Fold this protein.
Amino acid sequence: MNVSARAEGGMIGRPTPRIDGRLKVTGAARYPSDVILEDTAYAFLVMSTIARGRIKEFDLTEAQAVDGVLDILTYENTKGKVRKSRYFMRGGYAASSVVPLESPKIWHDGQIVAMVVAETYEAAREAAYKVRVESSAREAAPGFDERRPQPRQTPHIFAGSEPQVGDAETAFQDSDVQIDAYYTTPTQHHNAIELYTTTCVWSGDQLTVHEPSQYVHGLKNGLAKQLGIKPEKVRAVSPFIGGAFGAKAALTSRTALVAIAAKRLNRPVKLVATRQQGFTVSTYRAETQHHIKLGADRSGRLMSLSHEGWEVSSRSDDYKVAGTETTALLYACPNVFTRVNIVHADRSTPGFMRSPAEVPYVFALESAMDELAAALSMDPVELRRINDTRVSPIDQKPFSSRSLRTCYDRAAEAFGWSKRNPVPGSMQDGEWLVGWGCATACYPTNVAPAEARVTLAPNGTARVQTAGHDLGTGAYTAIALTAAEFLGVSLESINVELGDSTLPPAPVAGGSNATASICNAVAQACEDIRDRLARAAVQSGGALRGADATSIRLSRGALVSADGRSEELKESLSRLGFGPIEGFSKYVPEVASLPIRIMGHTLLSRGLPVMTIGTSAGDHVQYAFGAEFVEVRVHERTREIRVPRLVGAFAAGRIVSPTTARSQLLGALIWGVASALHEETEIDERVTRYVNKDLADYMIPVNADIRDVEVILVPEEDHKVNALGIKGLGELGNVGTNAAIANAVYHATGRRIRDLPIRIEDLL
Amino acid sequence: MDTYSPLKTPSLSQRNGSMTAVNLVLSVNGRDYRLTLDARVTLLDALREQLSLTGTKKGCDQGQCGACTVHVDGRRILSCLTLAASVEGKAITTIEGLADEGGLHPMQQAFMDHDAFQCGYCTPGQIMSAVACVTEGLAETDDDIREYMSGNLCRCAAYPNIVAAIKQARIDMQRGRS
Amino acid sequence: MRPFAYERAGDLVSAVTAATIEADSQIRAPIQFLAGGTTLLDLMKIDVMRPERLIDINPLEKSLSEISFDRSGLRLGALARMSAVAHHPDVEREYPVISQALKLGASAQLRNMATLGGNVLQRTRCPYFRDVSWHACNKRDPGSGCSARQGLNRNHAVLGTSDHCIAAYPGDFAQALIALDATVSIAGSKGDRRIPFSDLHRLPADTPHIETTLSPGELITEFHFPARPWARRSLYLKVRDRESYEFAVASAVVALDLADGVVRDIRIALGGVATVPWRSLAAEDALRGKPLDESRAGMAAEAAFATAKTFGGNDFKPELGRATLVRALLAVAMLEVRS
């Protein structure tokens, strides 16, 4: 079914204020953290302070003596209560294989070792501070052993993640110009402003969990599995999410504990993990190392590309992002070698953080490309142009669309790139050294199965229901625009319900798949409605009798045929029964593989990860692209680094909601600034513990750090990615920004910084 | 004076032990609430957990993010580092009390017009801070707005849109005053 | 947060009398004054401070927050809020460095809350001090050791350190106080006293847990800045990783009395690099009576950091500190100052 042919409303692509805006600016939007229930008891976590070892003994005397304490969960009274849910990368739900409060074993610093529940938050916190944990610590491994790693530290097999073609090493040796360099990226934490909170309440054997979530169906099913109850006995509610960025996708160890406490006390229990605890309650972006070798001929054409990555994971799990899948196909190159290694350390299991694979891996490649341009004395934009490709260099599959060159053209022009003096250190404004740099942004177009229910009432109002999520991405608005378009009604008449596991299942809001997956599902549900109304209308004795049903569309509260006849919606609806009509769809991505076609909706209803990723989309590869230009300023004496200007041009297929898409890209560019200059979780390697666990010491940009940011939406049509032609873009904008900034720092100072973040001391 | 009964009535004063209860009246958005609280309760937790005024957000609980910004006697402050007991008798305004019932403050309207938020969780704090920024006379230039709004972190990074919203609302607010 | 009794101060005398109690230092006393609360409540929440009784001195604000300027100098009540002083026209005009130091500290909300008295007494940001799960911290638990010396110490001090503590003093305003020869008025149950600001803070030495010379129950009531020729030609330069809302990586206060390009008198203080508010007499001496140019500024900066000691993560700080001071010196010499 080609739903795009039905679109006539002019709603998709229309700039509009987000439809949930009023709730957000008035404080009326109820985030999961805002749920206040009668008779709530409050929980407070106690975390391990060693990274590896065993708990020898608890002394709870002092804690239990605190007025109002109701319960203290430790492994001694909770082990066996939480069943194992498999790690999400192994086909389960959990952010880690470690089962909460299962045993005295300590896997990492900041592991939950106890949870105090009390009448008030104040009492719970006080008692938690009074829990005494005696443990025996063993020596712990913090991460990489060496600054420059050894190849292949684990024998783990990465099916499909290590693309290779030709003979990269020989081609490198034979190249006229060679770049051979190491790059590193630091540990980073999402630090969404909404904390990791959970409220659980039982009504008989029915559990409701209020928790900020990017995947309510995963949360529901995973929690049911952990508690050994049927999934239908669990409801997960998260209509708003105060920032997620990947951290609220997999099931963390706190949730089951709150559910168990609520059951034991037979009253609601609310947990608000502190900002500090949040550094190990959920996941993080682990540090990475990269070895890049580029070989090119004198004209700048790549002859050899080699990218080996090293990533840190926990002892318990093989988390990896393996970004060479992307870096191997960014540019034309006949010889490509890639390899990815995992180094296990005594840390919590890392997880997705906005553009998980691309942020670290593209930083390395796009820095190396800038080094190559410098070695060739070539304009870095020209180098990208020369090496642009229409097909994947690995298997020659075509890109479904690729507007990288147009993005570079548009962004370069808006930025004024032609005025750049290429000599490092040549541009200065008063006391500030000025540098201009650029880099490529790219992100795979992932699409997942999704379900949606649309209900259209005789008065022209409609209700759209799907268990998708609006993380601030604008999902409410994009979905409403899609429904308004296909139902031919105004935006105001659409009511969208998201973030509740009682709604038809939708995929995790991750991998930038949500807009494509859900809007296609909604369009199909609307088409279901249109089709039924139209077929009944043409067979009736009404105004549309005998018309071609397929040509009838919904417009302004009426059914309209191609020959100009029309009938009021009310009348069409009354023919099919009393009241509203319900449309339902189970969208299967057009590019899905056979297993996903067969099993996709079963997996989806079980809350399991199921997605067609951009590199396995049948006979082509599908990616969104962008080009980013930045200006940095470095003080000539004191070396503060500021970024007064960013320009990004992005092509991501059809843009459903330009207002919110623009905001996504704007925020992502600023994320790129943060990742280049500000963010780093510091580890005290003596004991493998994080040290800067708050928002004063873990820095993200403040308002004063950001000045001019320009986002250019480059029009792009792509009929291969899905019926509506949508590519995701939430994770596109912060890919490459860190390299663009590092490249600009080089241009300003002549200093090539290959280790992020770039700080004052790197430039003194 | 309205007497407000909290959802739960922890009878702190009746308990023995170390906890100290305080009886107080909080004046929030023009309404008085009589409360008995543990002396440790912050204004933020009192607003959220006792009065169900959850528009004021907890983002760090230690003065590092600005999500809990409210006005006390017209000045923007952080409710997470303020004891509820210490603001008895002062006029507290939260996001819920910024505009008349059913209406929008020009700043709220401007934030919508400029898409000055994404997830929206820092937004009430941003708006309370922004209103004060204008009334303090510290929103006259873009640089001033950026500097004097730097106490409100936005992880979604809507900063340029926030600046644009404040510039619009500043004009509307100044027009409204004259 | 541990339980505490909360009470409001009725008047100054009864407040200081009520707070007078036996303790090895003021900050470790079981009775604490609550003013802005921005340091105290923060540290109580994370269990670093555990007072049993809080005396809320905000009711004394009216009498202790006066800002007055006359020929003898500037008086600032200790309960004046940072924002009120920062934007006060007399302060902005006559003592620009005070206004700048206050405006560049914390955030607008925190400046509306924090008082001047609390500001100068703010505690270090050393993460090992601020997290009680680190066993070794001599400042928190005397004799337990120092986690920072061999730990992560990018933000730690290079001046005034000891074997027992290298935690940096985090404030901005105090650098203006120490540079401008300010004095502090203190009320106590045994009577009032007035001391040079430079006598308020104590080097960590072997007692880093005793941070000031205040006795338990003593309360700062006022700061006094004398009128001096260098006050108007003064500035505060704060260098940090982000543009705002961050503690100084390095900072400098310079107040200069310049005549025909020659330094008649000068005051220099350094922030972000020392364990206490840090006046650099060595740097001042290197410039007094000399022309102020790039090379002289560099010599002064060398002198300022001649005794610096680094610990790994902060190896860059002497160089950054010197660059910061040179930049501040050259900038202050260029200022247009009307007489």
In short: The radius of gyration of chain A is 27 Å. DSSP finds 19 helices and 28 strands in chain A. Chain A touches chain B through 74 residues (CB under 8 Å).
